[in-house]
Amino acid sequence: MTPPVVEKPGRTGRLLTNFSWLAGGRTTGALLALAATALAARALGAAEFGLVVLIHAAALMIRQLCNVKTSEAIIRYGVPLAEEGRIGELRGFIMRMARIDIAAGLIAALVGAVLLFGFAESFNLPADMQGPAAVYVLVLVVSVTGAARGTLRLLDRFGALSAQLTIGPALKLAGVGVLLFSPYREHTALYVLVWGGAYLIEHAYSWWRAYRSFVRFYAGARTATPNVDRSDVRSFLYTVYWQSTLDAAPKQAATLLAGSLLGPAGAALFSFARELAEVLAKPVVLLRQVVFPDLARLWRNDVPRFVRVTWRTGAITAGVGFAVVAVSVLAAEPLLVALAGSDFGAAAGLLTLLLLAASIELGGAAFRPASYVMGRARAL
């Protein structure tokens, strides 16, 4: 089957449709995750819930350090191959990126296992939490899903990406609901299993949907060695890796640092405020995923429209972000107390600062993919 051809790339209506798919999935997922977090925080209290937060943050930190961001390379180099009809080379390039992800996942799992089984006591992880935390070793194997997500974006399968965004949070909320109506509602270790299990299924689903789409469109093509500049690909992956790491790793490091300085309760306060702020921050990633394929096509075919789409996207999103920040000045503390209890009201000022940071990032969401397609990734 011939891969779908995107007509008139950069059209506002089409970009809004794809963004609506992702935003709908992300918003639903964020609300489900927030509900699960609030219910778990109320059931366990700040100190015990902080242990769940710290274990999850450590796993995310390891994943980020091992994640090469192959999804961006699939768009950057795959769009020209697809438009030129070089499907065999495109198939070969996607498979190459998938092998990188699999290797990165195995490395992440190995690092997680060494830290868990060799240094758990150094990190003050209670003995009864080490067994449940081991589920994250398995999670890390499949957690690097760049090639899977890049393939779905390239094929315009944003509906599948939307579904993936809701699966993990829905399972998390379901698991918390079961625990709350059971005699084990205060067993912290079971919440760790719920968090890890939901995260595992979410990433496994990404690989499954990408594999189905890959087979559907590319099974009939004969794999060919992609005629791309390997040194340029390596340079691009290296640059994107450090950009994404500088974006994401400090967020997890901040949670771990809060836990180190203030204890699990401090980590819980910081994590919950950040999760609320992520409702605004997550569209940054979604916008990049939506506009990147279209900007890649526009840069090749219509540069003036490329410029207009880039700036228009930034202006709209920045306005939305700053409006949310203004509301949070008055509503942050009541919202935190209503959702998670009086212990969490102290994070109100932090929540406003995190929202402000997210709004600035939201305003520049389109600039990074624009620089990628212009060959100016390192300039960032």
Give a description of the structure.
It is a single chain. This protein is mainly alpha-helical and 380 residues long. The protein is built from twelve helices and no strands. It has helices at 12-66, 70-83, 87-119, 127-133, 135-142, 146-154, 158-180, 188-218, 230-301, 303-340, 348-363, 367-373. It is globular and about 60 Å long. The relative contact order is 0.15. Mean pLDDT is 83; it is low at 5-10.
Succession of helices and strands: HHHHHHHHHHHH
In which range does the helix fraction lie? over 70%
Radius of gyration, Cα only, in angstroms?
A: 21 Å
The parts where pLDDT drops under 50 for at least 5 residues are 5-10
The oligomeric state of the chains shown is single chain
Distance between the termini: 38 Å
Total helical elements? 12
Secondary-structure content class: mainly alpha
Query: Which percent range describes the beta-strand content?
Result: under 5%
Q: Biggest β-sheet: count, sense, barrel?
A: none
The shape is globular
Question: Count the strands?
Answer: 0
Mean pLDDT: 83
